[in-house]
Structures are given as structure tokens and as C-alpha cells.
Amino acid sequence: MKQAIPIYANWPERLLAYLLDQLIVVLPIVLLAQPFIRESASGEIIIDPAAYMVIFVVNLAYHSYCVASRWQATLGMRILSMHVARIDGRPLKMRDAIERFLAFFLPQLPSYASFIPKEHASILVVFLTIYWFSPILFRVDRMGMHDRLCGTRVLAGKVGL
């Protein structure tokens, strides 16, 4: 019996799905992070480190839960008809989905490091992001570094109900 050839999701759809997902999580993030953002007497905005934890936890919960669900996709991915699966075609378990999100998040870590000057951290994040996600543009299987590390791939088409 012939095995079906997978159809990989293209980078424009993946990028658009990510942007849609960020629009979806922005409201919970704003509501939950609001208590940790204040204005100083001089008018400077002060962001407590807890606000960054809120951003991280909301994104972790959203992406992990959605990808481990029957849909195997975030809402943005679902809207654009794509899903995430392991290389062998099986759906991701919650642990797999959490690992994939953490691998996806890795290039952003320098921006949270207190020992790297902010301007250097920003440049480092840009270079790491290019390195991390550019394989999606050039590889036939459209696997970014996070997908390669976790043994996952983003496929075209919907699954589940």
C-alpha cells in the first residue's frame, strides 16, 4: 500500500496564522498584564517582570493546548487550513506541544537576559530568529529549527472536528 505524500504548509500561511494567533492572545495578555504595568512620576512606562511572565504563560498555554487538541492546530492555523503533526503522522501529546512551543520561543531568550545590553539583545534576537525560521523558506519539508528539534511538521489541511 502506498503511503500518502504529505503536503507541507507554506511560509506565508504559517506567518499569517501566527499573526492571527497573536491577535487572539493579545486581549487576555492585556487584561492579565495590566496590573504589572504602571507609569512613573516622570511619565516613563514601567513594566514589571511579572508582565513578561504573563505574556509567556498565556502564549504557552494557548499554543500548547491548541496544538495538542483534536484540531492539532491553533485557531489561526485552523482558519488557514493547516495542522501540526509528528513526523510519523501521529498527533502531538501535551508534552510534545509544550516542547514545540519552548523550542519556538528559544530565539527570543536573549531579550529576557539581564546580562546582555538591550541593544545587543535585540540584534541577537533578530539573527537567531532568521537562523531559526529561515529553513521554512528553503527546505522542501518546510521544517523550521523548532520543528526539526521536536520532530514535528506543519501540514496543509484540517483534522478533527
Describe this structure in words.
Helix content is 53%, strand content 10%. With 161 residues, the protein is mainly alpha-helical. Strands 1-2 form a two-stranded antiparallel ribbon. A two-stranded antiparallel sheet has the order 3-4. It is globular and about 65 Å long. The two termini are 27 Å apart. The mean pLDDT is 90.
Index terms:
mainly alpha, two-stranded antiparallel sheet, 10% strand, 161 residues, single chain
Number of helices: 7
Tell me, what's the shape?
globular
Q: Give average pLDDT, whole number.
A: 90
Structural class: mainly alpha
User: In percent terms, what proportion of residues is strand?
Assistant: 5-15%
Q: What is the CA–CA distance across the termini? A: 27 Å
Structure summarized in a few sentences:
The chain is mainly α. It has seven helices and four strands.
Please render the helix and strand layout as text.
Layout: H1 11-33, E1 37-39, E2 45-47, H2 49-68, H3 75-79, E3 82-86, H4 94-105, H5 118-133, H6 135-138, H7 145-150, E4 152-156
Antiparallel strand pairs: 1-2, 3-4
